[in-house]
Amino acid sequence: MTHKTKWLVLAPTGLLVVGAGACLINWAGNLKEKGEPTAKWVGAGTVALVVFNAGLSLFGHGVSESVLYQLKEKPADQ
């Protein structure tokens, strides 16, 4: 898989996962507000933060692949 392909897959996927994680964080907060048991909203919040951080990691990896692609495509005289 080329750097360009990785970039074009990872960056949008990362953004989607970040969005999903943000929604899950909101859901966990709503569980707390509703008075759900502590274990339930803490568990949900933990999963939400894992998903959110995974999205940031995917997006960051996509950005690094973009830089590698740009460096590879850069003419030698610049």
From TrEMBL:
State the superkingdom: Bacteria
Report the transmembrane regions from the record: 7-29, 41-64
- Asked if Membrane is a keyword of the record, the answer is yes
Q: Which UniProt keywords apply?
A: Membrane, Transmembrane, Transmembrane helix
Task: Please state what the protein is called.
Answer: Uncharacterized protein
